[in-house]
Amino acid sequence: MVSDVAEAPHPGDGPGLPIASGAEVWGALRGHLRRERGRLAGVAVLFLVAAALGLVMPACLGRIVDAVTAGAAWPVVAVWVAGVAAGAIGAALVALWGARILVGLVQDLLARLREDVFTAAMRLPARRVDDAESADLLSRVTGDVDAVSEAGGNVVPALLSAGFAIVVSLAALTVLNPWLAFAGLACVPFYVLGTRAFLRRSRVVFREVRAREAARSQAVLEAIDGHETLTALNEQGHALDLVAERARASIRVQIVGVGLRNRLFRSINGGEAAGLIGILAAGWLLHAQGALTVGAVTTAALVFHRLFDPIGQLIFGLDDVQRAAIGLARLVGVIGLAADAPLPHPATPAAATARTAIELREVSFAYPGTARGVRGVSMRGAPGTTTAIVGASGSGKSTLARLIAGHDAPAAGTLRLTPPAIPFALSQELHLFRGGVAANLRLAAPGASDAELGAALTAAGADWAKPLVAAAPGSDLDLDPDLDGGRIQQLAVARAILADPALVILDEATADVGLQHRAEVDRAIAALRRGRTAVLIAHQLQHAATADQILVCADGAVIERGTHEELIAAGGAYRRFWLAQTGPRGVMPPHASPNDPPTTPPETETP
Fold it and tell me: Which residue ranges does UniProt annotate as crossing the membrane (predicted)?
């Protein structure tokens, strides 16, 4: 059954992000642990002392049995009773002290790990994230982080305490009589066989659980993202059925895991019974030979019985440890994948901004498993000019933009930015970050003053947002979460102006902006283009008409190039596109320039 679960295909399988090996996980943790050697040593000493104090109680109880058997006076018994209380209190206090230090240590390590993972996630190449399902990365930075955090805060202290208790207790049994320790080993076959069977099967099952949960999350995300389309097509039931199907698949695998745990519990109970029976039998024989007192046998039995809880914690904790290990491997997989990625650079200092030239020579690129892409593209964009790329859907426009932005690397040919620059991309996807206007803008310039934010808003034509710069998140002046798409895009333009990039890529940046604010956003984008090198991907040719040069793409190749007037005069594909959008009398206003906003075009797409 387990093998079926491990190999069964399920919806949502795809080229997911990698999972790190054990060596890679250890390599990621080793540096963090090395910096905490002092605290680790202190925790080890405290747990060792706590385990030793824990033996005081069974030792004193054994003495009480011997004292009562010998008819000792009650003051003698009272001393040993006080020893029981003192040992219990001392062991609890020292263990608590060690646990507090260990929990703090573990949480510090987890905080660093979370920072590493989130930093790595932000550095992953966009193409690599696109190739994996979005829920894969999402489940790693949420569910997997939670699994590791829960194990680190609760399970690790319990397991470490249990480990010291087991070692010290076995040493105590050996001191009492080696035969007692030997008899207690009757539990080992039960523990070893049960644990090996559990570990061998559970790792596969728990890995599959995480994969199934990621597939379920993907179905939920897709339903949320496409809810308007689903509603329009009356397909909500189909989306709910898909989510339910993937949820049931996840539950089925989790039931397999429950069965594995139940079999492990039976093995543990069998081991406890075998070990305790062995010690009692050995103790009875040794007492019959005069080698041990009744009190010593009692102490041995209590010491072994005291191991039930630590051994149970150690073995039962393997469940959480397995989950955390899988989560940790998935997290380190993200870190390792981003190890060679360039550091994020959200903004170029204004003083360092330089006009950048773009040069492509015979550039070709194809998406994995398809023939789609671009082939043999050459172009040059002079510093401070705008190059528009137009064409039908699937012609290669956005692929060229991705190549210039650095999201993908050419498979052939050369692409140079001179001097090197970090492009700032503004796409049609609208997003409003939480936290107010200032928080949205300071993503691009963390040190910007309120006055600088206001100037950027003015340049972007977003004076309406200036009173909100100083507003506290959650106040009456905070941003409306249902803000119009045009307003959101104006904030995005203001953010780009604050970043002051040398090269800006506009990928259909007004596609999702309503007509109400289209002209305002057009003027904001014109302000952003002014004085900068820009690449403009446009379906609406009114936007492309103001560019210094226009490239017309078809089937991944550039079939025409020139200014708007030259392409109209040439009477080729661009002219046909232009007339299809504007009508037979559509002409470029004679006063237009690359820095003028285009007139609002009809709502049609390039054929």
Answer: 40-65, 77-103, 155-173, 179-199
Give tens-digit pLDDT for 537-578: 887 788 788 888 999 888 888 888 888 998 888 888 888 888
Q: How far apart are CA 105 and CA 36, in angstroms?
A: 8
Can you give the length of the chain in residues? 607
Ranges of each domain in the chain: 19-337, 358-582
Residues 315-321 have a mean pLDDT of 72
Provide the β-strand partners of residue 361.
Answer: 414
Sheet holding 357-366, edge to edge: 373-381, 357-366, 412-418
Please tell me which residue, 574 or 482, carries the higher pLDDT value: 574
Widest distance between CA atoms in the chain:
120
Quick one: fold of 358-582?
Answer: Rossmann fold (3.40.50)
Range 19-337 classified under CATH 1.20.1560.10: yes
Three-class secondary structure of residue 366 per DSSP: strand
Q: Which of 453, 544, 434 is nearest to 499 (CA)?
A: 453
Nearest to 117 by CA among 372, 388, 289, 335: 335
In eight-state DSSP terms, residue 465 is G
Can you tell me the distance from the alpha carbon of 333 to that of 17, in angstroms, rounded to the nearest whole number?
A: 7
- Using alpha carbons only, what angle is made at residue 233 by residues 230 and 236, rounded to the nearest 5 degrees? 40
